[in-house]
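Amino acids appear as letters; backbone shape is given numerically. Here is one record.
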Amino acid sequence: MATPTQLLAAKIVGISTAFLTSGGIISLSYSTVPILRSTPSHIALPHLDALFSSGSHIFPQLATLAASAFVFLAYNAPSGSDARMLYLAGAGGAVGIAPFTVLMMKPTNMTLREIETEEEKEGKKGIEKVGGDKRIKELMATFQWMNAVRGTIIAVGAGLGLAGALVD
């Protein structure tokens, strides 16, 4: 059985990490991506690729940390309690960004990366080959809203974890 200090630490880590991760993900959709969409494609694509890369090294680990804290709290909550169910649901929301990313976002992300590769090889001709700037801006808009949904998924997980802490 965990000590009260361990439980408090897990609540702080789980809830704050989930909310902060959500905020980080959503802020990309409402601050960074609109700026990239307003720049020429040959400038935006390398920056978007850097955004994908850095996000893949930060957000999954933070989501896993939040989910682990929620699972720890669920394990230590009374069997069948509302708190246990809320913590488990919060953990599901935290790690829910992974299947959403793979199943929903990956095709768009991979298409944008392939376009960047073509652009690196052939310059503007590579961009024209894939449908031009208009197609790239459409893909970036798709990434923008899907990324906001992904941030909302973990925000829901954070809210469920917070609810679990409040009824615990």
Q: What stands out?
A: DSSP finds six helices and no strands in the chain.
